[in-house]
Task: inverse folding
C-alpha cells in the first residue's frame, strides 16, 4: 500500500449536482451555465453537472438534457452526469455527455429506500448499465454509496464493499468511487475500507466522495491521502447534504479542500478564492449560509506573507 | 518527540467563555449555571466559565464574580477564568476561583489592537501576572494567542513562540497553551510549532486552543495528537469565533471532538450526545445555528451497531 501523499489531487466539483439538487429553489439553466463557466475558470477540470432522475421527483435536475447541450467546451475539462437507473442511462446517452457516474448503494436498507430495489438487484442492474455505457463509448465511473456506513444498517462490512468493487473492475469501469453518503466515515474506518478495496482496484483509479455531516470530512480526506488516493469529490461552499436535517453539513467544500491541499503542498490547480466568490453569490441566490468555511474567509483580504 | 497517539485526552470546555462572549445576547447567570451543571454531568472536568474583562466592554462576562461564587462544586472538576490584564487578575484572585488562564498574543499587531500594548510589554506584564497568580496560590495556565498566525502579521516565527514559552516555563506555570486564534493553523504549521515548543515545555503539559475558522480545526487536532498533545479546548456546538464574519466558525466543537476521539479509541469521558442537547438548547436561546456538526446529529437516534 502506498502510504505517501500524492503530489497532485484532482477535485471533482459536484456542487451543481449534489449541491443544487438538495436546495428547494430550482437554479435556472442560464444561472447553472454561468456557475459552471466560473468553476472552469477557477481551475476545476471535472464537474458533475446533472443527475438523470425523474424530473417530477427532482425538478432541480429537470433541465439536465438542455444544460448538457449548452455546456462550455474547453480542452481538458470533463463534465459528468449521475445515473441511477436504466431510464436515466438512456437519457444520458442521448444527451451527448461523455462521462457518467453509475451509482448504487452497499446498504440494502438504503438501496430499497433510494432505488426501490434490494441491494443485490441494484448491483445486477448496475453491472448491466456499466456494460451498456461502455458499449456506448462513455467514460464510466462506478460508485458505491454508503461505503462507510448507513444510518439504518450501521457499519457495512468491508468485504461487501470489496465484493462490489471487484465486480466493477471485472466489468471494466474507468474509475471507481466510494461515497460516504452519510458522513459516518472516520480515519480507522477509511483505512479499513481502503485496505480491503485498493488491492482490488487494479489500474482503475479510486475516487472518494466525502460528506462532512459529522465534521470529519477533511480528517477522512487526510487519512485517504496517506493511502495515495488522489481524486476527491467536493462541492462549492460545502453544499449538499441531507434535506431532513436543518443546517446539516454537505459535501466537503471545494474551497476548504483546495485550501487544505495548498497548505500541504499538494497541487490541485484550483483557485479557491475564485470558487469562494461563486459560493457567496449562490448563498445570496439560495438565501442561506453554506456550511463550508473558506468561501466566507475569501471575502476578506488574505493575511500578509500568506501561509 | 513522541509520535504516538495518547490513550486519553482532556477536553477543556470554553463555550461559556469563548462562546458566550461572542454572542450579542447576554446569557443570564442562572442559565449559565444550568449549562455548566449539564456540561459537568456530560463528563467535562475542566470548564472555562468567565473572562475578567471590563464589564462595559464585554457585558456578556459582567457577572463573572457572581457566577464563580455560585458554581456547582464537584470532585475532580476544575473551573477556570481568563485574565488578560492586572485588574482582571485582581478580580480573579478576589473571586475565589482556583485556576486562571493568563493569555497574551505572539503578534505585535494583535497585541496592540486587543490588549492596547506592544507584544513585548504584554509579555512583561504577563510574566508579572504569572508571578502574582502563583504567589496567590492559583493554578496557572499561560497561553500564547495567534501562535499559528495573525491576520495582520501573517505567519509568526516559531522561534518567537518558543521564546515566550521558555519564559512561561521559567516562571513556573502549571500548564502551557498555544491558541490558533485566527484559525490559520495547518498540519505542517502545527508540526513546525510543536517541534519548536515541545522540547522546551519540560514537565508542563501543553494544551491547544484550536479554531475552525478555515475548516482545519480537527485536521490540526489530528496532527497534534500524533505529537502526544492530550489537552484541547473545545466549545459546545463549535461556538465562538469572529464577531465580524457572518456565519464564521468558532472553536472546535466539544461534540465533534469527543465523537472523533471516540472513533479513534481515545478516551475523553465526555458524552457528546449530552453536550449536543445543551448546544441545541442554546441554539434556541441565541436563535442561530452553531457551526459544529455533531450537536445536530445527536438530535437523531444513533445508527445501529454504532460505529
Result:
Amino acid at each position: 500500500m502506498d502510504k505517501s501523499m500524492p503530489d497532485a489531487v484532482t477535485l471533482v466539483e459536484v456542487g451543481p449536482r449534489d449541491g443544487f439538487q438538495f436546495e428547494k429553489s430550482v437554479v435556472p439553466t442560464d444561472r447553472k451555465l454561468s456557475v459552471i463557466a466560473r468553476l472552469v475558470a477557477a481551475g476545476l477540470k471535472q464537474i458533475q453537472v446533472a443527475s438523470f432522475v425523474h424530473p417530477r421527483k427532482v425538478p432541480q435536475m429537470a433541465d439536465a438534457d438542455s444544460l448538457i447541450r449548452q455546456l462550455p467546451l474547453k480542452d481538458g475539462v470533463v463534465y459528468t452526469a449521475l445515473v441511477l437507473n436504466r431510464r436515466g442511462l438512456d437519457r444520458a446517452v442521448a444527451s451527448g455527455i461523455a462521462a457518467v457516474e453509475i451509482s448504487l448503494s452497499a446498504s440494502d436498507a438504503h438501496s430499497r429506500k433510494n432505488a426501490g430495489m434490494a441491494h443485490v438487484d441494484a448491483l445486477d442492474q448496475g453491472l448491466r448499465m456499466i456494460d451498456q455505457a461502455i458499449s456506448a463509448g462513455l467514460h464510466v465511473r462506478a460508485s458505491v454509496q454508503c461505503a462507510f456506513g448507513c444510518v439504518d444498517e450501521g457499519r457495512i462490512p468491508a468485504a461487501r464493499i470489496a465484493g462490489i468493487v471487484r465486480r466493477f473492475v471485472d466489468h471494466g469501469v474507468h474509475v471507481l468511487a466510494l461515497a460516504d453518503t452519510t458522513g459516518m466515515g472516520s480515519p480507522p474506518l477509511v483505512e479499513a475500507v481502503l485496505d480491503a478495496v485498493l488491492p482490488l482496484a487494479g489500474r482503475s483509479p479510486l475516487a472518494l466522495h466525502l460528506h462532512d455531516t459529522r465534521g470529519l470530512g477533511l480528517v477522512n480526506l487526510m487519512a485517504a491521502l496517506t493511502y495515495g488516493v488522489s481524486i476527491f469529490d467536493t462541492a462549492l461552499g460545502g453544499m449538499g447534504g441531507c434535506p431532513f436535517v436543518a443546517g446539516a453539513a454537505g459535501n466537503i467544500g471545494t474551497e476548504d479542500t483546495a485550501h487544505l491541499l495548498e497548505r500541504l503542498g499538494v497541487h490541485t490547480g484550483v483557485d479557491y478564492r475564485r470558487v469562494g466568490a461563486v459560493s457567496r453569490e449562490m448563498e445570496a441566490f439560495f438565501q442561506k449560509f453554506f456550511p463550508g468555511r473558506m468561501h466566507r474567509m475569501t471575502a476578506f483580504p488574505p493575511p500578509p506573507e500568506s501561509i
About this structure: DSSP finds twelve helices and eight strands in chain A.
